[in-house]
Amino acid sequence: RVTVVGSVNADTSLRLAALPRPGETVLAREASASLGGKGANQAVAAARAGAHVTMVGAVGREDGEPLAQALAAEGIDTGLLTRSERASGRALVLLDDDGENSIIVVPGANAALDDAAVRQACADLSPGDVLVLQHEIPAATSRLAAATASAAGATVIWNAAPAPAHAADLVEHVDLLVVNEHELDAVARLVGLRPAGPEADVAAVAARLGTDVVCTLGAAGALVHRDGALVRVPAPVVTAVDTTAAGDTFVGYLAASWHLPLADAVRRAALAGALAVTRQGAATSIPTRAEVELGLAA
Ligand code: ADP
């Protein structure tokens, strides 16, 4: 079982020739709407990986129903997705023809998760269950979730994304920290280290926080630091079309594969992430378990 306590957004993606400069008005070729938010994307990835997934979060009372339905359509349990007086979180994603993007996120209901729902979901976990957190909801809510799940004996995975900016953003009771290079750098600074490159930083952050650490490196795969040993897991070579949600796919697959030896779980997650970058879109680009199995067999 995988429980995600995190963000759910209504994403609007706009495709345009070039990103607008300040003061400029530009026309977009097309607009598309989809489910998004790191929490929701990771829940979808874990569900497609075959896990039984519960999504704990908050959406707007007025506008949240389509988001809840999109999660439920993936087989995700939405019984603890609460309805807020605030509007659902939103993200506006601008994508230009060079593959550059600019993203604006309005947290909305994600800033007001219900503590009672978080406590209920996390107290119900058992050893063998996995809690997944990101950094798109208040750190205090993530800390409550981590402390409660940890006391219940569950494994806590924290994907510190987007990069935390203050020491108060750090979450305790974490078993595994998952970051990309930029987030690793940010976490290293917050715990008082001078960044010295991914390999050294992964080891230093693991020692300082007392957690295992996985750092994703895009096309170069991932670094895994567990029990004092560092392993590099390569990603398959693919033609990247759209890297959106590669990280979320990786984390969701990793959480769903937690029962495997860590290096095997990371290999699976790296393959799933690589498949996601070969396709357009966020949640739509997340591969199914069958597709990943096919890739592993190849
Ligand atoms: P984020 O999107 O959070 O910055 P990364 O870019 O590190 O995360 O990507 C996460 C994972 O997705 C990588 O560890 C890798 O397995 C896969 N991936 C991402 N980009 C590529 C790529 N260009 N080629 C192959 N795999 C990729």
Task: Give descriptors for this structure.
single chain; 298 residues; UDP-N-acetylmuramoyl-L-alanine:D-glutamate ligase; 13 strands; binds adenosine-5'-diphosphate; ribokinase activity; carbohydrate metabolism; Ribokinase; cytoplasm
SSE topology sketch:
Blueprint (H helix, E strand, L loop, with lengths): L1 E4 L3 E7 L14 E7 L1 H11 L4 E8 L4 H8 L8 E4 L4 E7 L5 E6 L8 H9 L6 E4 L5 H13 L3 E5 L16 E5 H10 L7 H12 L2 E5 L5 E5 L2 E5 L12 H11 L5 H16 L11 H9 L1
Parallel strand pairs: 1-4, 1-8, 2-6, 4-5, 8-9, 9-10, 10-11
Antiparallel strand pairs: 2-3, 6-7, 11-12, 12-13
Helix pairs in contact: 1-7, 3-4, 5-6, 7-8, 8-9
The protein binds adenosine-5'-diphosphate (ADP).
Walkthrough of the structure:
The protein has 298 residues and is α/β, with parallel strands linked by helices. The chain has a single domain (2-8, 37-89, 108-297), classed as 3-Layer(aba) Sandwich (UDP-N-acetylmuramoyl-L-alanine:D-glutamate ligase), CATH 3.40.1190. Helices cover 33% and strands 24% of the residues. It is built from 9 helices and 13 strands. It has helices at 38-48, 65-72, 115-123, 139-151, 181-190, 198-209, 246-256, 262-277, 289-297; strands at residues 2-5, 9-15, 30-36, 53-60, 81-84, 89-95, 101-106, 130-133, 155-159, 176-180, 212-216, 222-226, 229-233. It has a 9-stranded mixed sheet with strand order 5-4-1-8-9-10-11-12-13, sandwiched between helices. Helix 1 packs across helix 7, helix 5 crosses helix 6 and helix 8 crosses helix 9. The longest helix is centred in the last third of the chain and has 16 residues, at 262-277. The two termini are 28 Å apart. The chain binds adenosine-5'-diphosphate (ADP). Adenosine-5'-diphosphate binds at residues 180, 216-219, 221-222, 235, 238, 240, 243, 246-247, 250, 270, 273-274, 277. Adenosine-5'-diphosphate is lined by residues 180, 216-219, 221-222, 235, 238, 240, 243, 246-247, 250, 270, 273-274, 277. Keywords: ATP-binding, Carbohydrate metabolism, Cytoplasm, Kinase, Magnesium, Metal-binding, Nucleotide-binding, Potassium, Transferase. Belongs to the carbohydrate kinase PfkB family. Ribokinase subfamily. It is an enzyme of class 2 (transferase).
